[in-house]
Amino acid sequence: MASSNSARAIYLNRKRKAEYSKMVISKPACFYAKYFEQNFAMPDSIIFYIAKNPKTPELYFKMVKTCEYFFIKNPILVIPNLNADDGKWRSGNVPLNLTKYDCKFWITDKIYASADEFIDKNIFSPIIPKFYRCDVKHLFLFSQVVSFNALSLLISSAEEIYLRNVIVKKCDSVIPLEDIVAIAVNAKKFAITKPTITSKTMKELTKLSHFSEFDYFTLYDFSEVFDIDEFYDYLKKNQHTKISIGINPQISDAFKNRLETIIDEILETKQFNYKPPFINIPGLDIQKYRKLCQIYDFY
User: Is the pTM of the predicted complex or chain greater than 0.90?
Assistant: First the structure.
């Protein structure tokens, strides 16, 4: 009896292993072992083009489920949410070693990457060449250093963008705010902290047709080289965007006084024919602050 039970246990164990090997197709050996040469009704050149150019993640999933040929010819992992806040990538709670996998990545919804002083701030550098496409709608970057080419890929489809302490470089040059906004062509919400500002930034922003189509534009902690008069002229023509700015506490008295003059003009206005902004400056009177908040929220 014992011998019979032992033989049955061995048989069941082997059967479970066989079934498991069929399920775990993430192992290359298992996956490729199931692949056979295919004979399609359409010419090979057309099939090859279809394999190399899936239009949507949903279509790619259907193709791969239909035939493993499509994964063999164009191996892609579709990742809805990609996040890192400790120097390591994850999707949800699942760790991802993106440099390990011999395939491309298609990011479809959200990227969140944050680093502190002890974490690698160049976390995108080794993985950007492995991106097949980036169709994210939400992009949140904190304390990152990225190339302009990398950011162009990450930001192009994003509708919600938040950049905090992000340095964008092209060769050895740091890219100014206007060049970043220029590639955020699908943005609806755009917030940035400590951007690189030039004296021409505001004028260059007003030349961008999609800048006036932002629903929200938030600018924090920027330098005094920013042309505040050009900014105010634009504000008084702005019919659509909710604009909010917050100033570094270390600004000069002259710059602070100019902003407070603008705030007073806004508070004294009885009827607005533009979208009034919210402007927060160090030491602003609490009553003015509250009234400015009310005006901003109402309009």
Answer: no
